[in-house]
Design brief:
Strand 1 and strand 2 form a beta hairpin. The chain is of the alpha+beta class and 86 residues long. Strands 1-2 form a two-stranded antiparallel sheet. The chain starts with 47 loop residues before the first strand and ends with a helix. The chain contains one helix and two strands. It is globular, with a radius of gyration of 14 Å. The chain has one helix spanning 67-83; strands at 48-50, 53-55. This is Metal-binding protein. Residues 5-83 form the Cysteine-rich small domain.
Length: 86
């Protein structure tokens, strides 16, 4: 089975690439907005806090070659959090 579904690139996007990278051809746009943002410190990315708000400007994990696999490895936690009722 192919794995082309793990990579998507939109060079027409006015923000492409939205992070400073060495090789634009390997920049993955699939997770333009990271689904792991809600995991806070458990996301596994390179983030910081700016005035109490999580800042992912320096994180390239979702856009990396192995970003898809990293994100999918944490989706059970995202689903768990999203399934909680108040």
């Amino acid at each position: 089975m192919g794995e082309n579904f793990k990579f998507n690139q939109n060079k027409k996007c006015e923000y492409f690439p939205c992070h400073d990278v060495k090789d634009e051809n390997k920049f993955n746009c699939m997770f333009c907005f990271c689904p792991l943002y809600m995991l806070k410190e458990e996301c596994g990315g390179n983030y910081s806090y700016n005035n109490g708000i999580k800042d992912c400007t320096n994180c390239k994990v979702p856009h990396s070659e192995n970003g898809y696999d990293h994100i999918m490895s944490k989706m059970n936690k995202v689903i768990e959090i999203g399934s909680k009722r108040d």
